[in-house]
Amino acid sequence: MALSIHTNYSALITQSSLSKTNSALGTNQQRLSTGFRINSAADDAAGLQIATRLNAQSRGMDVAMRNTSDAVSLLQTAEGAFNEMTDIVQRMKDLATQAANDTNSDEDRTALQAEFDELQAELVNIRDNTKYAGENLFAAGGKFLAPMTFQIGASSTEQLSLDVSTEVGDLTTAITGLAAETLDDAANSATAMDSLEDALDDIGALRAQFGANINRLNHTANNLANMRDNTEMAKGRIMDADFARESANMTKNSMLMQSGISMLRQAGQMPGMVMSLLG
Predict the structure, then answer these.
(1) 250 near 25, Cβ under 8 Å?
(2) Which domain of life is it from (predicted)?
């Protein structure tokens, strides 16, 4: 290397090296302070794009999990109401079966009819006043009187459709019709038994549909949790800083900065050495 007053080659090389080391040290410090390997698109453009897509998918699955839990709560509310209806209709059938026996006196049948009527009124009350989040479920305009769609995934195609409007309408008709049933003699009591049997079938069919969909939604939630966890792990491998590596690199670059500054000081003395040749 030639000695020159105008061009201090050693100083230029050292300054260039220091600039690179300082940039690398700044990157190490930024990653350690934020916890992210990628803090701007310049750090890893392709990685940022992939991580952004993974993050959108993960957040969508988080919301879908909440949607699924809400759907389960809605269906469990409805199924709980039908469970109570089942108990009531079974008791009404017991009363009708008892009234169909001619060992009963008129006074006995009057007492049986009184309980029967109160139970039928409670069926109507449950139908009209079962709500979820303030919304009617079975009364006029209720949620289950029209097809329902539950968003159970991060994409628009991941939906669960449920339509029990016809079945709920049939049950409503059956419950209303029970008000006309009387237990004043054996023949009418036997007719009431048949009507109650039909009502039990209607309730059982609805409970089966709700139960099947609740089970499906629980499996959906489990699968969403699995997918979300693995998506988060994939995103983390791209975005998250490796603290051990960055700490080691920061120590290395700090040492390089110190040695570079020392070398730059020595390189600055080179022109003076040239002047010594002229002495």
Answers:
(1) yes
(2) Bacteria
Q: Is residue 167 part of a domain?
A: yes
Residue type at position 152 = I
Q: What is the pLDDT of residues 190-205, one digit of tens each?
A: 999 999 999 999 999 9
CA distance 135 to 37: 47
3-state percent breakdown (helix, strand, coil) of the chain, nearest 5 = 75, 5, 20
**b or e along 215-225 (b: 16 or more beta carbons within 10 Å of the residue's beta carbon)?**
eebeebbeebe
Whole-prediction pTM value? Answer: 0.77
The span from the CA of 172 to the CA of 146, in Å, is 14
Contact partners, residue 81, CB within 8 Å, separation at least 6: 126, 130, 137, 138
Task: Kindly report the CATH number assigned to the domain that includes residue 84.
Answer: 1.20.1330.10
Q: Which two tokens stand for residue 59?
A: 């957040």
Domain hosting 161: range is 45-239
Q: Which 8-state DSSP code applies to residue 240?
A: B
Give start and end residues of each alpha helix (H) in 150-185.
165-177
Q: What are phi and psi of 162, to 5 degrees?
A: -140, 125
β-bridge mates for residue 132, sequence order: 135
* Cβ partners under 8 Å of residue 1, min gap 6: 9, 10
Question: Domain tally for the chain?
Answer: 1
- Residues 175-229 have pLDDT tens digits of 999 999 999 999 999 999 999 999 999 999 999 999 999 999 999 999 999 999 9
